[in-house]
Amino acid sequence: MSHSCAVHAAGETAVAPAPSWAPTAVAERTPWTRASRVAALETLLQQRILVLDGAMGTMIQGYRLQEADYRGTRFADWKSDLRGHNDLLTLTQPAIIRDIHAA
After folding, report:
1. CA angle 59, 65, 69 (to 5 degrees)
2. Count of CB atoms within 10 A of residue 100's CB?
3. What's the per-residue H, E or C state across 6-55?
């Protein structure tokens, strides 16, 4: 079974205006691309401590995984449902987790 996030599968790219917290030099750049987001983070990291919440759960939901996807072969005979236990995906679906972190 091939897995792909619905947004990425459609070939869409997220381009939005820079958020209000972005440094001025970065906020003036358009579009708000991965490169400009990285530049904003680098600038902010020099100025303050940052807490990043990556919204992994939301990204995982985009893959529409089923019970069998969470189980993989390693947990095929597990006695209880595993769907929604996203930490298991590092063992059963490492490519998905790698793709999310690379996005």
Report:
1. 125
2. 19
3. HHHHCCCCCCECCCCCCCHHHHCCCCECHHHHHHHHHHHHHHCCCCCCCC
pLDDT, tens digit (0-9, with 9 covering 90-100), for 10-27 = 444 555 566 666 666 555
* 5 pLDDT above the threshold of 70: no
Beta bridge partners of residue 16, listed in sequence order: 32
Phi, psi for 18 (deg, rounded to 5)? -65, 140
Decide: pTM greater than 0.85.
no
**Is 88:70 a contact under the CB 8 Å cutoff?**
yes
The answer to whether the CB of 96 falls within 8 A of the CB of 63 is yes
- The pLDDT assigned to 51 comes to 82
User: Which token pair is 22?
Assistant: 């972005």
